Each structure stands twice: as structure tokens, then as C-alpha cells.
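anyone seen this seq b4? input:
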Amino acid sequence: MKRKVVDEALREAKIMGVRNILALRGDPPREEEYRLDPEHGKEEEEVKENNEQFVWATDLVRYIRYKYGDFFCIGVAAYPEGHSDESHPREQSYENDLPYLIQKVRAGANFLVTQFFFDVHAYIRFEKMLRAHDSGIFRDIPIIPGLLPIQNYQILKRTTKLAHCRIPPGLLEALDQVRADDEVVKRKGIDALCEIIREIQTVNSNGPRGFHFYTLNLEKVVGSILEESSLIPPESSAVDEPDSAIDDTPATIE
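predicted toks r here
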């Protein structure tokens, strides 16, 4: 990626008042299509610098910190079941990814957003491992679980295959039995994600607990999950709450 493209995106983000940046490596470009070539008199060394400056997410985090200091709050990806490209020579696991996650945090990341998952126990093990890590760098950092609402059976199978994400056998069997009925699949998916949310909420997060939804531009199922899991309180609760944070009692003038 060209450095000037990154610079322009960051400059515009700052002008618009955007403070949160999620720094991802993204999919590696196909060499023949996206690698830069010398053009308009550029020297090969300059092209090489552009091509190699942002190879990893750590490079991007470090560059943002160098250019903008603490202006941006930077998030990075974390993988409760290991990175999906299986780049490790032996196996896919979060233990193999851990050194790279440590590098990203030490480079300046402020929060973590995880890859989506359906095995809630794998996620809880992952978060507890990070909190207890000997380095101490994950003790207080916000860790935001990533959740994928289930829209239909085929999309679920395709996305979990791409991400190498495990579907627990009980959930997979329940969905497989109704795979032809999208509405029933959605209903079972809503129930499953609400249960995942409830289980995660029992874990001490060392701060406010948030969730990230991979909506795929399909928001209705997300709305149902938010309502049924009580992540968004009813509108009346703020009015009925006796210990409201806003005291509108007229002041007494002495």
C-alpha cells in the first residue's frame, strides 16, 4: 500500500473528528495486480519502500503513533481460535498468534476486537489467558468480542469456513435440521448469540463490556439481538430509574 494513501486517510479522519481507528493488515495483495511498479520516474528503492512499509498491522499501528501521537485510539484484531490463514507451520491456535498480538499492543494499540466465534468457551479461555499473561499488557486493555449474526445457513457455512471458525456440534445440528428455512435459522441464531452474550457477561472484563457485530449490512437480526439480550435498555428505564444521573430538581436560592 502506498504511504501517501495511508497519510491521506489519516489526515481526513483527523479533520472529520474521527478518533477511533481499527488497524488491520487485511488480505495480502495479489502480487501481479496490486504490487507497485516503478512509474513516472520513481526509483525502484522508493517503490520497494512503499510496498514493504505496511506488511503487518504492527507496522500500521507504529506509523499512526509516530505521525499522530495519542490523537487516535487504535484498535487491532485478535483471534480466539487462531488466525485463519494458518500461516504457522504446525497448527492454527491463539498461542501461536500471541507474540504478534503482543507486538501490536506494544506498538501502541489501545483496544482489541476479536474475530467472530460461536464457541463461547474458546473465547472465554482466550480472554482469561490474555488477562493473566505474564507481560501484564492485556490486564486492562478493552477486549471487544466479535459476533456474527446468523442470516442463513449457507452464509454461515461459507463465512465460518473462510475464517476457520468452529461451530459447536449442538448449534450446527440444530441449524442443519432447519437449513432450508431462513426465518427459523435466524431465530435459532438470535437465541444462540443471546446465550453467548449472557455467558460472556459473567466474565469480569476489567472495565466496560462491549460487543462488536459483523452485520454484513444486514441490521434487523442485530436489532433483535440487542433487544432480547438487553444490551440496549428500554427507553422508559432512564425515566423510571430513581437514581438517575441527571438531577432536574430546581435549585434552592438562598
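The CA atoms of residues 1 and 33 lie 12 Å apart. Strands lie at 20-22, 73-78, 111-116, 143-147, 212-213. kinda curious what u guys think
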